[in-house]
Specification:
Elements lengths: L6 E6 L5 E6 L4 E6 L11 E2 L14 E8 L13 E9 L2 E8 L4 E7 L15 E6 L7 E6 L3 E8 L26 E8 L15 E7 L7 E6 L3 E6 L4 E8 L12
Antiparallel strand pairs: 1-2, 2-3, 3-4, 5-6, 6-7, 7-8, 9-10, 10-11, 11-12, 13-14, 14-15, 15-16
């Protein structure tokens, strides 16, 4: 039976909610349809030919998560834009791919250093999971690391007037003005009963995680562990709900299909 040891889970917000699982050791992926509560027939499927220009980078994927209405490092007027942020290595260089979930295509790739995620750079090789933490306001992100710590990234999203009107996605990198970006702060936190209630006991076993944004008041964070187990974590309540549970054909039908 396949294991989740080399798996990266990411959430999908455009259209019907899903969770995608990338199996890096076999260069395949699976799509879990949340509404149907199953992986449909035909998965796992080859990565090649399915993820556009990101195909070749899946084997070096570190973590990823989705956002709605969060733009690139330039003024954009698409408030409902669904982007899957995929963080990976290109050689020794930390990179981020903005994958447009609405068009199912790569929107932009850049180095982490030159992106709006630059504050993650010192911690990049230790991050195993991240998620958009939609509690009280939409500018919070949290990341789990493999050393028993976590990150709390806060964006003070003060509206700023763009310097020019962008009619499409073609632009000159040299015209980017850093003052147009949100002010960011980042905080390193140990995973404890205060910061992640219920998660501390499993902090050394976390492989990956993905969010199910069911409602604003009841988002679920699925945290996957070694030995094919997972936890159910409530984001608004910031607490472990249950687990560990076995990842099997009853809990995640079709996910571990050969």
């Amino acid at each position: 039976m396949p294991t989740l040891e080399q798996c990266i889970a990411v959430d999908w917000r455009a259209g019907k909610d899903r969770i995608y699982f990338f199996f890096k050791d076999t260069d395949t992926y699976a799509r879990f349809n949340i509404g149907d509560q199953e992986v449909p027939a035909g998965y796992p499927a080859p990565v090649r030919g399915s993820w556009g220009t990101f195909d070749n980078h899946v084997k070096n994927l570190r973590f990823g998560f989705a956002t709605t209405g969060l733009t690139l490092d330039k003024p954009m007027d698409t408030s409902d834009l669904d982007i899957l942020w995929l963080f990976y290595y290109d050689g020794d260089t930390p990179m981020v791919c903005a994958y447009n979930q609405d068009t199912d295509s790569v929107l932009q790739t850049s180095t982490v250093r030159s992106s709006k995620w630059r504050l993650l750079l010192p911690y990049f090789d230790r991050i195993v999971a991240g998620t958009w933490w939609q509690v009280n306001r939409s500018s919070l992100f949290r990341f789990i690391m493999n050393d028993g710590n976590s990150l709390y990234l806060d964006w003070d999203e003060v509206p700023r007037a763009p310097r020019r009107d962008y009619a499409d996605d073609k632009y000159d990198d040299n015209l980017f003005n850093p003052v147009d970006t949100p002010i960011q702060t980042i905080r390193l936190e140990p995973i404890t009963e205060s910061t992640w209630p219920g998660l501390a006991l499993y902090k050394d076993r976390i492989i990956t995680a993905a969010q199910n944004d069911r409602t604003f008041a009841d988002n679920t964070f699925y945290v996957f562990l070694t030995r094919n187990q997972y936890l159910i974590y409530n984001i608004p309540q910031n607490r472990l709900v249950s687990g560990p549970h076995a990842v099997d054909n009853q809990s995640w039908p079709g996910l571990l299909r050969n």
